[in-house]
Specification:
GNAT_dom; two-stranded antiparallel sheet; 136 residues; 6 helices; Spermidine/spermine N1-acetyltransferase family member 2; 9% strand; Acyl_CoA_acyltransferase; acyltransferase; Diverse_Substrate_AcTransf; 44% helix; mainly alpha
């Protein structure tokens, strides 16, 4: 079984964070949507007023298949701990409709599927739509 350590990300982790974002996007067949740079990650997460907080899961050693070892549950539990420590009343996860394994995990841990329960859909404004709205 793999050993797991979860810690707050440091500025020096940005290259690895970006690599993982790209790997996840490739897995989700959304590589074309990754437009952030390492410099932007650094500025947005480690500047004076960070836009995000990031945890790093260090898994040692990592032989073979990692699924089924409880790593996802441990990471989500840590996110809940950090969120409560920071005074958050909730946190949200986004998952693609085909990723049933992730949805089943989130539900098993007590998350509510807002699309199912309340009919919520997520929307995103980006690029040209933002500039057009802002008149730029």
């Amino acid at each position: 079984m793999a050993s797991l350590r979860i810690r707050e990300a440091k500025e020096g982790d940005c290259a690895d964070i970006l690599r993982l974002v790209r790997e996840l996007a490739e897995y989700e067949k959304l590589s074309d949507q990754v437009t952030i740079s390492e410099e932007a990650l650094r500025a947005d997460g480690f500047g004076e007023n960070p836009f995000y907080h990031c945890l790093v899961a260090e898994i040692l050693p990592a032989p073979g298949e990692l699924q089924g070892q409880g790593i996802g549950s441990k990471i989500i539990t840590k996110v809940a701990e950090v969120a409560l420590d920071k005074g958050c009343s909730q946190f949200r996860l986004a998952v693609l409709d085909w990723n049933k394994r992730a949805m089943d995990l989130y539900k098993a841990l007590g998350a509510q599927d807002l699309t199912e329960a309340e009919g919520w859909h997520s929307f995103r404004f980006e690029g040209e739509a933002m500039r057009e709205m802002a008149g730029r």
